[in-house]
Amino acid sequence: MNDMERFFDAKRCSDENKLAYSIYMLTGEAEHWWASMKMVLEEKAQVVTWVFLDEYYLDNIRYVKEVEFLKLVQGNMSVAEYAKRFKHLGRLHTITVDEEWCCRKFENDLKGHIKLMVAPLSINEFPP
C-alpha cells in the first residue's frame, strides 16, 4: 500500500483513480475479500472511497497476519523458510513485543530436534 501511495502521489491520481487501480491490483484472498465486500456495500448503497479501502483492508489484513504470526510454527518449512516467514509476519503485526519475546517465539516453534540445538544458545537478539 505504501508503494501504491507513493505511485499515486507521483502521478497525481484522483481518489477515484486510486480506488480503481487499487481494486485492479488485488489478487488472491484480497480479491475475494473485495468481491464479497463490494456486494455488501452495494446493498447498503455505501460509497466506497480510496480511504475506505486503505483503512478497512489494512486493518483486516493486519488482524489476519497477527493471528498467522501467533500461530506460525516451522512445520515442514526449512529453518530459512521459517525465518523468512517469521520476519515477514513480524513486520506486519501491531502487537508490541520485545526482541527477546520474538526470539523465544521463534525458538519454541522450531521442530523438536532443531529446537534442542538452538535452546542452549540463549539467543535474545533476532537477526535483521
Polypeptide structure, described:
The chain has 128 residues and is mostly helical. The protein has two domains: 1-57, no CATH class; 72-128, no CATH class. Helix content is 70%, strand content 0%. It contains seven helices and no strands. α4 (50-71) crosses α5 (79-92).
Write the layout of secondary structure elements.
Layout lengths: L1 H10 L3 H11 L2 H16 L6 H22 L7 H14 L6 H10 L3 H7 L10
Helix pairs in contact: 4-5
What attributes does this structure have?
128 residues; mainly alpha; 7 helices; 0% strand; elongated
Radius of gyration: 19 Å
Mean pLDDT: 80
Helix content: over 70%
* Total domain modules: 2
What can be said about the biggest beta sheet? none
Number of strands: 0
Name the helix and strand elements from N-terminus to C-terminus, one letter apiece: HHHHHHH
Strand content: under 5%
Which stretches of 5+ consecutive residues score pLDDT under 50? none
Give the structural class. mainly alpha
Total number of helical segments? 7
- Shape annotation: elongated
Distance between the termini: 22 Å
